[in-house]
Amino acid sequence: MSAVIAELNALVLGLFIITTIAMTVARQIGACMQLFIVQSLLLAASAFLLGASPVSWHLIALGCVTLASKVVVIPWVIRALVPGEVHQRRELSQTIDVPAALLISLGLTLIGYAFALHLMRSAPSLSPGNLAMGIAGLLVGLFLLAVRIEAVPQLLGILAMENGAFLAGIAVAPDFPLIAELAIAFDVPLLAFIVALLARTAYRRMGTTEVGGLSALRERVH
Q: Which percentage of the chain shows pLDDT scores above 90?
């Protein structure tokens, strides 16, 4: 890898973890969605950069799959199914306040970085930046999933975890089989479709998208 590509990739990785942390403190679904799109663009950019020198068609294919499924299809599915008034709400429900969420996210980033350093001692050939920021993104996405109590932000937390896992996967196994990439291209948008459909139904019947209200929704349906 050339020095220029390495520096560009380092910049992309820094922006990736910043957008992931920002998702934990965003107060609107629309803002979370925009941050997820930017995060997915950065994931694709890292795949393209690492696949450029030396040329790896697997990484280039991964970047294309990411652009198509996470930058185009998933946001379109969520915007099409979730009512517009949900996107326009000013405040999202969250179990902890913003300063605490920010501090915990930073702590999880440091834990992910330390864990990546431990792994790199046993496998020096791994790409250090992608592995560290991928593990950190996975942990912060898990935290996002835990602190949000509404369906769409929780879905975005799952997708952020998946982005982090893929960023780390680029370092661990850069030559992904094409069948895995195609499977993800179909499975992840399907997950977004199901959760967005449930969120729309819950909002229309109960006026909220909180996950805790889905049990009440099930009782009403029965």
A: 18
